[in-house]
């Protein structure tokens, strides 16, 4: 049974400015494991990665029904399967978590589905 569905979209230009300004936003959003993956990427992929992870965490909080605040950004971790597909590896949800991330030239979008039972 589906407990919640969340979706979020982030503009890549906004994230690129944040990265270029060396903002602490990157560490506030990414867990240490996510940050390790982020650091290995070229700049363009860093922008897409951070935007996608932020969109995922926002989408999760919407599916969870609370918004960011009741569930923290570090309470949710999105790493990847061996195939490269994103995978939620840490969250307060006890059931299955399904995630999809997509990018265009200007945006990143993420959808989360929380399943129970």
TrEMBL record:
Database matches in Pfam families: ACPS
EC number: 2.7.8.7
Residues that, per the record, bind Mg(2+): 8, 58
Keyword Lipid metabolism: yes
Catalytic activity: apo-[ACP] + CoA = holo-[ACP] + adenosine 3',5'-bisphosphate + H(+)
GO cellular component: cytoplasm
Listed GO biological process terms: fatty acid biosynthetic process
Annotated compartments: Cytoplasm
Chief subcellular location: cytoplasm
Needed co-factor(s): Mg(2+)
Molecular function terms, GO-annotated: holo-[acyl-carrier-protein] synthase activity; magnesium ion binding
Family that this chain belongs to: Belongs to the P-Pant transferase superfamily. AcpS family.
Function of the molecule: Transfers the 4'-phosphopantetheine moiety from coenzyme A to a Ser of acyl-carrier-protein.
Protein name: Holo-[acyl-carrier-protein] synthase
């Amino acid at each position: 049974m589906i407990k919640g569905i969340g979706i979020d979209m982030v503009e890549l230009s906004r994230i690129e400015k944040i990265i270029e300004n060396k903002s602490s936003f990157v560490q506030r959003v990414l867990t240490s494991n996510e940050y390790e993956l982020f650091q290995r990427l070229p700049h363009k992929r860093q922008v897409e990665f951070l935007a996608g992870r932020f969109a995922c965490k926002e989408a999760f909080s919407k599916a969870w029904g609370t918004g960011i605040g009741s569930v923290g950004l570090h309470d949710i971790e999105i790493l990847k399967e061996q195939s490269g597909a994103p995978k939620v590896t840490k969250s307060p949800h006890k059931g299955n978590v399904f995630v999809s991330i997509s990018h265009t030239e200007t945006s990143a979008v993420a959808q989360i589905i929380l399943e129970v039972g």
